[in-house]
Amino acid sequence: MPSRTRYFDLTGKKAMVIGADNPAGGAIARAYAEAGADVALCALTPDEAVMRARAARRDIEAMGRRAPEYIMDVMLGKNVQVTTRQIVKDLGGLDMVTIAPDAFLAKPIEKTTDTDLARVMQVNFSAHFFAIRAVAEEFRRQQQPGRIVCVTSVLGERGLPNTAAYGAAHGAVHNLVRAASQELAAEGIMVNGIALGWMDWMDDRISPEDEEAQRAVRFTALRRRGQPEEVGPLAVYLSSEVATRYITGQIFPVDGGLLQHL
Amino acid sequence: MLERFDLDGRAIVVTGGGRGLGRGMAMALAEAGAAVMVASRTEEQLAAVAEEIRDAGGTASYFVFDATDSKQTDDLVAACVAEYGKIDGMFANAGIGGGTNAEFWEYPDWAFEEVLAINLKSSFYSCRAASAQMIKQGTGGTLVTTSSGTAMRGNRGFAYPTAKGGVLSLTKSMATMLAGHDIRANCIVPGYVSQRPAADDQERAFREQRGTFMPVQRLGEWWELGPLAIFLASDASSYVTGGHFIIDGGGLAGGLGPVKFRPRNEG
């Protein structure tokens, strides 16, 4: 069912979702399509991630939109650039991008190896940098406004034991959003973020034996975990050319109020 | 998913809805399907907004009240219930600069109290009255306050930012206290946004010049808070509460130098 207002209508627009194989990326890809966009789906690894992206593809094609699949190696800036170029050619343009890679790691600092840290920083942070760099180049080439949405975590705003590496990577994304917004605003390219709280697909991030874990969910004001379909609408809003002409450099929470209380 | 943005069947009050950003939000909410009640002190403006909404096929009514008076604010919510049978949303948006230009060390009591009353007490009264009714209904609802970018940084004219900072804190506390009643509370933080279309070329030129200080190279326009209002009033934001939503053309994300300042050292 279409929205009653023009603000959230993406009919005819071209979108790319990096990390369409994870729940947040998949939900946003479906939301883009429901709003009327064709969506290029980027899985990050050539394994079962492709099958997860393909599930989104089936849903989107059933809506009558195009949803070509790609494998994008976000560890390599050049691969991100080349794949983005290909996507723009295949879709015939690009209006919005969601960047949603997510490699969770929860380890004490002293157990976090050099390799762990490098991988966490690359997937969670560098991927955003590579993608913004590649996408800004495409938007400039088109000489049209564009929208970039970075999906991040509340752990980029606050400290939590065992998440030093992961939280630092997301904190880096938050300031990447702010700095990129300043660099790209005058060209009509808006860069914003969505910081997720405890979502219902994150149960594997807590130990079932941890008595504190259930109390952690209760730290959320709404006393429940978020669902994938609660992420999509904000991404559509922040990707809409007409609705988001005066918003940039912001990280908006979809966290049930987790960040907002003492 | 997109039906989450629809406000069909929702009754929403917008204080300060006779002009400026409140008017813009009221019109957007009505466009998304809400039955809107605009409220302020100025009947002429309210009647015009309500008529404009109805002419566009929407549902609107108005209520004349003084937002700094708690009894009149309770009456406003009662009027919404009388008109629409309930209240689902409160945009506590009434507010204005006010005060005086006196230096801080000479700033008079009356001016500080006036600015706090218009901007902060009014927000408390509106949200208190609305939440009491929402809890009575057992339906939940949404509260949306209007703060200001000036609340996030120090600047001259301290009374207004102080009051608007209070609005921000009020909102986060409301989110915490009211979540158990299924009431969400969020805060809109506008930067430089024009309250109405430019009246003449001179005003247009002034705005263009001021716009060059913004990262997006222009000022915001009165209607641009509309989509944000719809998002926060609707189920599109069902997992969002206590948030503050800065809409300022990138100003607060930067601000470490003139907008065209770019350090360089390419190694």
Q: Main traits of this protein?
A:
heterodimer, A: 262 residues, alpha/beta, 7-stranded parallel beta sheet, 7 helices, B: 267 residues, 7 strands, 15% strand, globular
Description:
- The complex is a heterodimer of chains A (262) and B (267).
- With 262 residues, chain A is of the alpha/beta class.
- Chain A has helices at 23-34, 48-62, 77-91, 114-142, 164-184, 211-218, 232-239, and strands at 14-18, 38-43, 69-71, 96-99, 146-153, 189-196, 251-254.
- Chain A has a 7-stranded parallel beta sheet with strand order 3-2-1-4-5-6-7, sandwiched between helices.
- In chain A, helix 1 (23-34) packs across helix 7, helix 3 (77-91) packs parallel to helix 4 (114-142) and helix 4 packs parallel to helix 5 (164-184).
- Chain B has 267 residues and is of the alpha/beta class.
- Chain B is built from 7 helices and 7 strands, in the order βαβαβαβαβαβααβ.
- Chain B has helices spanning 20-31, 43-55, 70-84, 109-137, 159-178, 201-211, 226-233, and strands at 11-15, 35-40, 59-64, 89-92, 141-146, 183-190, 244-247.
- In chain B, strands 3-2-1-4-5-6-7 form a 7-stranded parallel beta sheet, sandwiched between helices.
- In chain B, strand 5, helix 5 and strand 6 form a beta-alpha-beta unit.
- In chain B, helix 1 (20-31) crosses helix 7 (226-233), helix 3 (70-84) packs parallel to helix 4 and helix 4 (109-137) runs parallel beside helix 5.
How would you sum up this structure in a few lines?
Chain A has 262 residues and is α/β, with parallel strands linked by helices. Chain A contains 7 helices and 7 strands, in the order E-H-E-H-E-H-E-H-E-H-E-H-H-E. Chain A is globular and about 50 Å long.
Total strands of chain B: the figure is: 7
Amount of beta strand of chain A: 5-15%
Uncertain regions spanning at least 5 consecutive residues of chain B: none
Structural class of chain B: alpha/beta
Separate helix tally of chain B: 7
Low-confidence stretches of chain A: none
Q: What structural category do the secondary elements of chain A indicate?
A: alpha/beta
Q: Which percent range describes the beta-strand content of chain B?
A: 5-15%
H-E order of chain A: EHEHEHEHEHEHHE
Mean pLDDT of chain A: 94
Based on CA atoms alone, the radius of gyration of chain B comes out at 19 Å
Tell me the overall shape of chain B.
globular
Radius of gyration of chain A equals 18 Å
Largest sheet of chain B: 7 strands, parallel
What's the overall geometry of chain A? globular
Q: Largest interface, with Cβ-Cβ < 8 Å?
A: A-B, 53 and 50 residues
Helical percent range of chain A? 40-55%
Strand order of the largest sheet of chain B: 3-2-1-4-5-6-7
- Cα end-to-end separation of chain B: 48 Å
